[in-house]
Amino acid sequence: MEIRLRVLLLIAAALALGGCSMWPFHKKEHAEELPVEATSAEGNAPSVVEPQVTRRTVKTPKIKNSNFEIGPYIGTYSAEDFGVNPVLGARLVYHISEDFFAQTLIGRTTVGKTSYERLSGGAQLLTDSQRKLTYYSLDFGYNLLPGEVFVGNRRAFNSALYMTGGVGATHFAGDNRFTVAIGAGYRLLLNDWLAAHFDVRDSIFDIDLLGSNKTTHNLETGLGVTVFF
Amino acid sequence: MRTVLKLAILLILATAAGLAHSADQARQYDRDAGHYVEVVVADPYLELHTGAGTGYPVARVVPRGEKIEILFRRTDWFKIRDQNDREGWAYRDNMRETLLATGEKLPIEDLSHRDFDLWPWEVGAQTGNFGGGNVNSLYVGYSMNPNLAAELQVSQSLGHSANGEILLLGLAHSPRPDWRVAPLLELGTGVVRIQPKATIISPPQRTEQLAYYGAGVKWYLSRRFILRGDYRSYVIFTRSDTNEDRNEWKLGFAFFF
User: Fold this and answer.
1) Chain-chain contact of A169 with B136 (C-beta, under 8 angstroms)
2) How many Cβ atoms from other residues are within 10 Å of residue A124's Cβ?
């Protein structure tokens, strides 16, 4: 207890001291530089012409950034051994550059019964609450094939076929399971702020429910919309 | 299933609404014209691409002296509307050669070097190993100056014998932030909630304080985009006589904004 308190105090002190000493009190203001006074080379001798120029204050224009995407998706989630079930999720995307993006997904589904449970009659492997499957994923994406889609001869929509890879966790059968997910998707930009997505993902995690530990591949398809902001 | 069906219908309606909206776009913009930043093309011409990417073809050019409106920016591309209400995407480097009404060049935030005054925030996701189990973490950092950043981090550890959630607040000191591969020294504290997984005797879930020190590396891969690796040594202050030690390594990506 004693050591613990001492270490905590030490950390608090280190943080406080470090933080205070480094805090940018001196940080330069983005103020305009003062105009240099017109003085002659001799020093204090009055200049012939006093400049009567009033400095125009130039405001840096604020251009709206639109690098984030947010929106829901629905689809099917095939939990290995537990059948294919509807899934509902949401995604948040940040476009780092024209090629790369980062995304976070959260999804939820309720899995069905295994063949064993169906055939055996009454046997239940999971309770109802354990059948709820929730996952999150932190992905990194690459726009592999950007392009345009032509609808009729008057309209063109920008699109991209992208690939994602990431890690996350799946809460299923009473436990959190480390998950690696790879996926591919298609983004269709309907206008400047709205996009439609079609995704296919494979979430890979280990499950020890049926005795031994085994790696499962859980395929998911999703259709979604996102709003850019 | 019913709710899913309803949501599907909602989704389709939203998509349809979006399509309808895109047809109205030109008129919509007319209404709030004047709201956007106006610049004048100073280069012989400004190329407008059909999309926000180098691969998209140049569909039109705006000649020197013509006024254009900047609708918004996405990554390194600017959505532009010319005087004839035609729209396109112009690249950042070309936009540099446009002039504001005051005659000055359009100031464009450039991220080729990290400017800690302009872009103090950093967000990253990492994965690795915490005391033998997997760990995923998400962090937000705020640079107080080029050398020192405060970082808030949430982690989830997924081990064989226990799962845990960790919330940390710490400092990361970068002695040489100007290097492309910049070293880091880290120090911090937080709390951990440990949920043991044992199936036979289930020990109760416990919440403990912990502290860490560590070292890391930030590799500035490209503009605003970092590969980051960390190695940390944790001490968990338990309620029993002995404290627990954990080592952690993590690797992940981060970007600043």
Assistant:
1) yes
2) 12
pLDDT in tens, chain B (257 residues): 555 556 555 555 555 555 544 444 433 343 344 478 888 888 888 899 999 999 899 988 999 888 888 888 898 899 999 888 889 999 988 888 787 777 777 777 655 556 666 778 899 999 999 988 899 999 999 998 888 999 999 999 988 888 899 999 999 999 888 888 999 999 999 999 988 876 667 678 889 999 999 999 998 877 677 899 999 999 999 888 888 899 999 999 898 87
Buried b (16+ CB within 10 A) or exposed e, B17-50: ebbeebeeeeeebeeeeeebbebbbeeeebbbbb
Written out in words, the top-level CATH class of the domain with range B32-99 is mainly beta
The C-alpha atoms of residue A44 and residue A91 are separated, in whole angstroms, by: 67
Establish if A87 belongs to a structural domain. Answer: yes
Q: Rounded CA gap, A168 and A107, in Å?
A: 11
Minimal C-alpha gap between B156 and chain A (Å)? 8
Q: Which domain holds residue A142?
A: 68-228
CA angle (B143, B149, B152) in 5-degree steps: 105
**Topology of domain B121-256, per CATH?**
Porin (2.40.160)
**Inter-chain residue contact A148 with B106, CB threshold 8 Å:** no
Q: From chain B, pick out residues whose CB is under 8 angstroms from the CB of A143.
A: 53
- Residue A144 sits in a domain of what CATH number? 2.40.160.20
Contact A22 B147 (CB under 8 A): yes
